[in-house]
Specification:
By secondary structure, the protein is mainly beta. The protein has a single domain (about 5-270), classed as Jelly Rolls, CATH 2.60.120. Helix content is about 0%, strand content about 45%. It has no helices and 22 strands. The protein has strands at about 5, 15-20, 30-35, 40-45, 50-65, 65-75, 85, 90-95, 100-110, 115-120, 125-130, 135-140, 150-160, 165, 170, 180-190, 200-205, 215-220, 225, 230-235, 240-250, 260. Strands 2, 3, 4, 5, 6, 7, 8, 9 and 10 form a nine-stranded antiparallel sheet that branches. Strands 1-19-16-21-13-12-11 form a seven-stranded antiparallel sheet, with no helix packed on it. Strands 14-20-17-18 form a four-stranded antiparallel sheet, with no helix packed on it. β17 (about 200-205) and β18 form a beta hairpin. The chain is globular.
Length: about 280
């Protein structure tokens, strides 16, 4: 079974496609679309809610005849962005300049809030961790962010040589302490050389029960990793690089995110008190 996916850097249209019959996710899907010479990309969402997140460039997104303008951004590593929540059962056309890129995050939902643009000023920004485990979190959708039926979406920015998603944790059990949520991580890496550079990160994922899962993946710019269950973390980025992760989660019981730390790693939280965050944080503003 494939859990790691790579962008087709030379293509246009859908250049990354995770979920559905590709990988294990049942509740989530992720596509990255690069606008081609026609200037547009059309799709229909039925029993899913959709969140359209600009990665580079701005967009006009038409839903059922109403056009929503997204100013977007030049780079997800250096800028926050506005984005669009699209309710289920919608026909959508995305228009942008050739080469503009947009992430499309889907989650199972029969109904949802009304379609609306979420302004960049509404994105909740926080710094988590300390020292070499400090990172920037941009909360987009779900718990403590824009309303949704199922999906939770955020962005993580990790300075070079840093560790995020640490301590390792899981959210695959429906209990009072934990939420049942699968997850997809998408990677972009800035090493000063652009998308064809040599930056990289590593992600660890492994099973917390008798289900088979054991991943130690080297992720490059444009890669994605599907996490159907199990412990995941840390994500470590090479020195000299800045790491952007887009994460999306969904499950059968709505957008509540409760986690369990790996018992051998939760001690790291006690070291954060008194440790200043990395001097480059916040990275995107």
């Amino acid at each position: 079974m494939t859990y790691q996916f790579s962008t087709d850097r030379d293509a246009t249209g859908i250049v990354l496609d995770v979920g559905g019959d590709r990988g294990r996710p049942q509740y989530t899907r992720l596509q990255v679309v690069r606008i081609d010479g026609t200037g547009e990309h059309s799709l229909r969402v039925d029993d899913e809610e959709l969140v359209a997140i600009p990665l580079s460039g701005g967009f006009d997104i038409e839903r059922e005849g109403e056009v929503h303008r997204l100013a977007g951004r030049e780079s997800p590593i250096h800028e926050l962005t506005d984005f669009l929540y699209v309710e289920p059962h919608s026909a959508v056309t995305i228009r942008g300049e050739r080469g503009a890129r947009i992430a499309l995050a889907f989650a199972k939902a029969e109904r949802g809030p009304a379609t609306r643009v979420v302004a960049r000023e509404e994105v909740g920004v926080s710094i988590r961790g300390g020292g070499t485990t400090s990172r920037q979190i941009n909360a987009l959708v779900g718990e403590n962010a824009a309303e949704s039926t199922s999906i939770i979406i955020g962005e993580i920015l990790t300075p070079g040589g840093g560790w995020s998603s640490y301590p390792a944790h899981k959210h695959d059990d429906d209990s009072e302490e934990e939420s049942e949520l699968e997850e997809i991580y998408y990677f972009e890496i800035d090493d000063g050389e652009g998308p064809e550079g040599h930056g990289f990160a590593y992600q660890r994922v492994w099973s917390a029960d008798d289900r088979e899962l054991d991943i130690l993946a080297e992720a490059k710019h444009g890669d994605a990793i599907a996490i159907p269950h199990g412990w995941h973390g840390p994500v470590a980025v090479a020195p000299g690089c800045t790491l952007y992760n887009l994460y999306l989660m969904a499950g059968p019981n709505g957008p509540t995110w409760n986690i369990t730390d790996h018992p051998e790693q939760t001690w790291i939280r006690s070291t954060w008190d008194g440790q200043p965050p990395h001097s480059s944080l916040p990275i995107a503003q």
